[in-house]
Design goal:
mainly alpha; 6 helices; about 0% strand; globular; membrane; transmembrane
Length: about 130
């Protein structure tokens, strides 16, 4: 399996796992939804989980991979405010939890770059 395909499928697996998590255990995800968003946090949790599953499916199919990778990069940027909210909300928790919440913030950058790299890899193949 070519490296670019393996990378796309790994990203798809990450998104699928996260997407399933939004439905199996929605409470922690709903807690990170910024209050400024209209509607219920649970609805946003399910919507983002469905989006992650759709992105995963798109990344798994070569014909839709480039568009899905671009959409995944945008998605990772779009959910960044939820990670900021989590870090702010968890600033008084135990050191390991606080560290995990703040460590998630810079991790969005490699996720965005990973998705962009998958898209660029597909562009090079076409």
């Amino acid at each position: 399996m070519p490296r670019s395909e393996r990378s796309a499928l790994l990203l798809a697996g990450l998104l699928a796992t996260a997407g399933v998590g939004h439905f199996v255990a929605p409470r922690p995800f709903a807690a990170t939804v910024p209050r400024s968003l209209p509607g219920s946090p649970r609805a946003w949790t399910y919507a983002s989980g469905a989006a992650e599953l759709a992105l995963a499916a798109g990344l798994a199919v070569p014909r839709t991979r480039r568009a899905s990778a671009r959409a995944a990069a945008a998605f990772f940027v779009g959910v960044f405010p939820a990670n900021v909210k989590m870090a702010v909300d968890w600033r008084h928790r135990s050191a390991p939890l606080r560290t995990a919440a703040f460590a998630r913030l810079p991790l969005q950058i490699p996720l965005v770059l990973w998705a962009r790299g998958v898209a660029k890899g597909e562009e090079a193949r076409s």
